[in-house]
Amino acid sequence: MAHEITDTQCQPPQSAIKVDEEENDSPIEQVRLTVPPTDDTSQVALTFRTWVLGVSFCIILSFANQFFSYRSNQLYLGSVAAQIILLPIGRLMAATLPRRVIKIPFTGFSFSLNPGPFSMKEHVLITIMAGSGAGGVYAVHIITSVKAFYRKEMHIIAAFLLSHTTQLLGYGWAGLFRKYLVDSPYMWWPSTLVQVSLFRALHEEERRPKGGTTRLQFFLLVLICSFVYAIFPMYFIQAISYLSLACLVWKRSVTAQQIGSGFSGMGLGAITLDWNTVVSFLGSPLATPAFAIFNTFAGFVLIVYIILPFLYWGNIYEAKRFPIMSSSTFDYTGQHYNITRILNSETFDINLDEYNSYSKLYLSVLFAIAYGLSFASLTATLAHVALFHGKTIWENMVKATEGVQSKFTDVHTRLMKKNYREVPQYWFHIILAVTLALSIYTCEGFGKQLQLPWWGVLFACLIAFSFTLPVGIIQATTNNQVGLNVITELIIGYMYPGKPLANVAFKTYGYISMSSALSFVNDFKLGHYLKIPPRSMFTAQVCNKICPSSLTCTYILPYIYIYKYPPTQMVGTLVATTSYFGTAWWLLSSVENICRTDLLPKGSPWTCPGDNVFYSASIIWGVVGPRRMFVDLGVYPQLYWFFLIGLFSPVIPWLLKLRFPNSKWPEYINMPLILSATSNMPPARTLNYTSWAVVGLFFNLYLYRKFKGWWARHNYILAAGLDAGLAFLGIIIFFALQAKEIYGPDWWGLRSDSVICPLATCPTAPGVETEGCPTYS
Questions:
Q1: Which of 96, 329, 400, 747 is deepest in the core (most CB within 10 A)?
Q2: Domain extents in the chain
Q3: Has UniProt tagged this entry with the keyword Transferase (predicted)?
């Protein structure tokens, strides 16, 4: 007789274990309102259905997201779409699959195709695996830059290993820091509460309030309304995504359109009636704490409405020669920088003679100041964590090492420790060691196509290791992540100048492995809240030495997995990365002139907007290098002062905290958030920020205070329903209509912001000539 594969089968039977809420519940109010302090250990988690559905949806999401990432109208499919679809499929499998036990020939292993009802824990594990297909693979940008922009060939095995090693390194970092970023109740990861609410709405039985709806009914109503409404901004009236009063009134004024355009300008007076515009780049505002929205919006106002006008109309850094906001690179005449003119075609590095005879590299003033703010946000993160969380981190590390109960545990941590076996730390050490060796081989082998030497890989890993904990603390408490992309580009740009591929490879190993680690930790926290057995999150191995002798310690689908401990999250990562890589390689090899807007046919959707930003960064930091950009030979040497500005900026709220020890408000001033507020600009637009802040403050400040009961019951369900309706409609429109070149009616409502505000991107310096723009004398 086969036994279900779960960590709980070796535990005494328990159901709905609950502890005294007053004494043990979470110290975070949002968590108390969303996550129940219970655990039903009778639910199965790792089953045949988990593997089949998890792997299938992982492939589907990764293919769709990579496919659409190359198109002008991008579509991102998050795990929430799979989360909804999975429920009826899982229940259908539970109702139809045979329950007989299948034995694996010549082994002692057996499993059941149908262990019983489709449980919430199964659903969570499947969604986490599928979510691996929604996260993206940053290394694909390198492959795209080489093949599409630089027009070079790349060894397919090198590209394959690059994609996988950068993702799996993050899995190792996640294992090292999970004790501090998962077990601590103060690391509450706000975004996970949206999924917790949705899972509860889909699985928990509840009575419908008189005159009201259940949470599942509310979710379905929101999904339907979002689905129906979204057809207007996505297909029939696309102009309502970026409405600008200034552009409609002052049709011939460059300055008015620079100020009023919500897409290419400062966005004053611009509004949106499109939920996709609200959630693009910054995520759902309903899932972000009010204090984080305050800090982000304060930084946005400071940078875009105070610093940017001063720099642009003061013509600092020759700002008027270029668009006020752009992610492109320019020469002194205001034209797009001709990179082929300065790049040595044989050695693939900078030709200094050509560079000196051509032009220095220039950026739009917002793009330039974004790099300075990246410097500041990095040092501010370290200082903020040291001042505000240093004592807590140290005590947490000591308590974790001693293995004693402390104030750093809550009911969720205690239930997990009590009911389930922990994942041995050496499992993560093995993954980290193997992946690191493969990373070095990827860079040193294949004719050193990636240009990065072995010491560069090790140094990049040291950076990722050093920043995962402090950046994780920021994200776990504010729902915002400070990026390491700029500092990694800067470091390798100094150490190994003129090598574009070495620069982007170093950035990917140093920054993306950390970012991937925090994504994994986020999944661990979701499993923590919903009481998924840790070894079910990591492995299909279940029983331990205390199992009754009558139980057979079995594995699910062991013949598929060579290893004794097949990790579910890592399998999802491997499958998703392979799918992302395969889709990208296929499109780069089959779509002629993909990403080359100057060579593509008019109206072609294959413009690769995200890859353009990545390509520009490879020119700035890799080809030209930081010395010729930000030091004595460059245009922007003053930006290095931002390192000091960021380092000392958290001292102000820290001193306020000391001055007002009984007040909480100084702790809400988060300088890393303020300084990194516009880190997504470009490609994010001003209207993305303003609409996100307005919606977020309305729900998480006003409604949270005035209607806390409604907020606790409906806020996160509303966020999930709005996103799900948008995702489902996007799938239908892309595949059923736009993939067949069927677009909406040709009328004014289909005009984009670039058509309504065509002058917002025009330079205003005298003598600069740009097609479609007036020339100033």
A1: 329
A2: 7-18+25-185+409-623
A3: no
